[in-house]
Structures are given as C-alpha cells and as structure tokens.
Request: fold
Amino acid sequence: MRSNWKRAAKARLIGAGLAFSLMLAAGAARPAMAQERLEQDFGLIKACAGDVWRLCSDVLPDIGRMKACMQDKMGQLPKACLDKLLDAMAGSTFKVCKDQTYALCAAARCNVYDGVAYCQCEEKHGDSISLPFPMGKGVDVCAVNAAGADNKYMVSTYSLPEQIASPQGGGGVYTCEGGKSGGAYAQCDGGICFKSTEETTFPGFDKPIPKGQIICSCPITDASNGGAQGYQILGPYPCDKSFFKYCKSETANGHTGSTIYRSAGLSTSAWARRERRSARRPARRVARRGQPEDARSVP
Reply:
C-alpha cells in the first residue's frame, strides 16, 4: 500500500513537471529541435516538479491556472528551478545580447510628447536581455543593436540596474497595485535610441543630457486598460511615499508634457533576480501603495 502511494506521488510530480514544460513549449517564440526540447523538458522536470507541486498543486492539472500560479509565485522558486526556467525562456521567449553596447532604461524618467515617451537612459556595455523582435531571417533585436554601433544608434534592452543592486545605489522598487493605480508607464524594451541626443538639450528635460546617457523612444502602456495586473517602477530609497503619485493617472498619463517612468515586465524582472543572486547583490523593495512602509531586500 505504501509503495503504491509513493508511485502515485511520484507520478503526480512528473505530471506536474511535464505540464510545466508543456506550458513553456506552448509559449515558445521559435521551434526547437525535438531532441533539444526533450532534454530541456527533462531538465525542467528534474529541477521544478517538486516546486510546482509544492506551490500550485491545488490548480493541477489546469495548465492555464498553473501558468498563472507559477507567474505569481516565481519569486518563491529556488535557484535551481529558476535557472532552468529562465534558461528555457531565454532560448525562446527572450534573446540574450552578449557583449554589446546597449541602452538601459530600467530606472528611466520619461517625458511624454504626442503619445510617445522619450526616456533618459544610460549607455551600458555587456550582456542584456530582450524580447527577440524579429525583423526577418536572421535579424533580431541583438542584430539590430549590433548594427547600431556603426550607425549612431542603439536599442534599449534590460539588465539589473545599479540603482537597486548596489547598497549605495539609492534606488528602490515601487509596486503600483493592479486595479488601484491606473497610471501610465513606458515599456522601453526594443526602443530605438539615438546617439545624437547625448550632450544636447531635449524637449521636456530641464538639463542637457549628460555624456553616457541617451534619449530612447518608448511606447506607453495605460494601466487603467490592463485589468488587475500591477506593475513596478524604480524610484528613490528610502521610501518616499510622495513618489507613488507616479502610479496614478492624475500625474502619470499619456498626455503631452506628462512625466512617467519605465516599468519592467515580470519575466525580465525574474531574469534580473537570477543575475542578482549570481552576483550576491541585494536589491531594495519599498511598500506598495496603501500599505505600511516596508524597505527590505528582495530575495
């Protein structure tokens, strides 16, 4: 009887892992070879099945609900599972641009003009992550960014910003809660940035853009149209409660002259958490709007 129970439990764990890997395969942006997919699936099963069962067993075998559950609890995944998950995502959903100069807009302040956010971003060099943004055979975001080195432009991609990674960074993560905020924010992943804006004046910015920074054009997302899903922006640390005005539509909106901030998506934030863990650098999170102040390290 006991051995039967063990076999059943093991089967449930394997089923959870298979469902998890099938969830990833269904969301892949490009087809993988069968052998590669099989090896990846077994790697995910080995690394994540126990965590899927621990965190989301109440919604199995519903793939849609499990996907939502795992997204909601991604911060609770141990490093082994998170590494496998993000490696799979980086090979399909995301592209990792290696050893390139890129624009980092993670903590950018943006000025709105005629429905577009123009964001003051940092010039960086190294590895970064982005959605692939395919533009034809063999051309994706990394290829476009690489070509910019000789053509005086670069692309906005993502890496962990020093403002929250370093103890001396002076930055914190502000959560604008879904269903309560309604503000607008910039989504800069893939935005085009022009070198000609460096060390010049630009509409909406009081001071000239300093050397090592660049203006990027980014689309605007209106959170009031996004249902209950919240978002995060980077701001000052320790917590400045007045900064939460940038979660509200009265201040942060798509009207010309408005000031908004860049927000990172869930998956890129999770990838950055892995990079931070690898570097053993803490980041700071401040209170959600309407909750008591809570400044602490993000796991």
Remarks:
- The CA atoms of residues 130 and 226 lie 22 Å apart.
- DSSP finds seven helices and 13 strands in the chain.
